[in-house]
Amino acid sequence: MKIPLPCFGLRCLVVLFVTAACVPLGAAERPRKLLVVTVTTGFRHASIPTAEKILAQLAQESGKFTVDFIHQPPGQPKKPAISRELKENPFAPAQRAALQKYVREDEEFAFANQKWIEAVAVSLRKLSPANLKAYDGVIFASTTGDLPLPDKQGFLNWIADGHAFIGLHSATDTFHGFPAYIEMIGGEFKTHGPQVAVDCLNQDPTHAAVQMLPSTWPVFDEIYQFKNFYRGKVRGLLTLDKHPNDKSPGDYPVAWCKQIGTGRMFYTSLGHRNDLWDPTAAEGGKRMNSPATAKLYQQHVLGGILWSLGLAVGDAKPQTVRHLGDGLPGAGEKKAPKF
User: Fold this and answer.
1) How far is residue 314's CA from residue 304's CA, in Å, rounded to a whole number?
2) With contact defined as beta carbons under 8 Å apart, do 39 and 120 qualify?
3) What is the CATH number of the domain that holds 159?
4) CB neighbours of residue 311 within 10 Å
5) 241: in domain
6) Which residues pair with 218 in a beta bridge?
7) pLDDT tens for each residue of 86-96
8) Would you say residue 25 has pLDDT above 70?
9) Residue 166 domain-assigned?
10) Domain residue limits at 72
11) Whole-angstrom distance, CA of residue 59 vs CA of residue 17
């Protein structure tokens, strides 16, 4: 007499194996999809191609996410230069021919620039709420200026609805006329001095974006100073306790993160220089950051990306203790803004 296999025997194991092979991987096991934006309508950093290369490399090496890009459309026109003499005395008889030439060239520029902005708007259609459904997060890598997004508020709503935003370097030099964006990213670029060596202070060694960094991390870069920055609204990650150039005491934030609704935002102001992005790159024919420093910067960015995607540990709650000159010059106004 044949004895049937029990449900927990070989037959059941075969069924379970076949069934498991047919079930797709869960969302948590699939690489996340990120959209990297490197479009600029203001100043354009020379390090952007290096940033694009390294972000693609980090995605491939980590295996945790993939990247698509919105690149700068070609053919951006250049605004005509105006001589000092013409600027100081435009209606002088001797400047008549130069003035006519400048007016003509400026009109041609305005027409060409409008056409180029239309091409930029087409490239940014990927940032519409409908198209963003295909992505888990967006990186603004050294973007500048007022980008013609199809729906700016819709973009912010998408972040708050559980998605990731990563801002690198001049992402805070973007959308100066859009207060809701400034509120989302946590600060607004104000100015910077000459590139300089600084000692960044690690404010949260347990956070994925800075856990690989020492308590004091020396870096050579262009160091931003901010307005509309409020410590009580962000989780500080890196800061300075003195002005980067004149060394006067204060609180000068460098990197931070925050919760945006159910979404996450990570920002680092570092990343101006090629030799900070790439261990093999030079800046102006020489290196001011060691290859080891560049590798740490890459891990800083990678940690921030993974945290923003919910794939790495880190608190987003603003620190409640006063520290590192909180409220001193450089920390922004003391009262929260009203948007």
Assistant:
1) 9
2) yes
3) 3.40.50.880
4) 17
5) yes
6) 199
7) 888 888 888 88
8) no
9) yes
10) 30-76+124-308
11) 31
**What is the distance between the terminal CA atoms of the chain, rounded to a whole angstrom?**
81
Handedness of CA 333, 334, 337, 338 (dihedral sign): negative
Which tokens is 301 given? 């960015």
Q: What is the predicted pLDDT for the residue at 329?
A: 55
Question: Tell me: the pLDDT tens digits for 234-268?
Answer: 999 999 999 999 999 999 999 999 999 999 999 99
Domain tally for the chain?
1
In a domain, 98, yes or no: no
pLDDT (tens digit per residue) in 53-74: 999 999 999 999 999 999 999 9
Strand partners, 196: 221
CA 151 to chain centre: 19
Share the mean pLDDT of the chain: 88
SS3 string, the chain, reads CCCCCCCCCHHHHHHHHHHHHHCCCCCCCCCEEEEEECCECCCCCCCHHHHHHHHHHHHHHHCCEEEEEECCCCCCCCCCCCCHHHHHCCCCHHHHHHHHHHHHHHHHHHHHHHHHHHHHHHHHHHHCHHHHCCCCEEEEECCEECCCCCCHHHHHHHHHCCCEEEEEHHHHHECCCCHHHHHHHCCEEEEECCCEEEEEEECCCCCCCCCCCCCEEEEEECCEEEECCCHHHCEEEEEEEECCCCCCEEEEEEEEEEEECCEEEEEECCCCCHHHHCCCCCECCECCCCHHHHHHHHHHHHHHHHHHCCCCCCCCCCCCCCCCCCCCCCCCCCCCCCC
Position 135 scores a pLDDT of 98
Distances (CA, A) of 338 to 76, 85, 122, 182: 36, 44, 33, 12
Cβ contact 253:225 at 8 Å? no
Residue 180 lies in a domain: yes
Structure-block tokens of residue 41: 């309508």
Query: Structure pTM?
Result: 0.86
Both tokens of 92, joined, read 């002088």
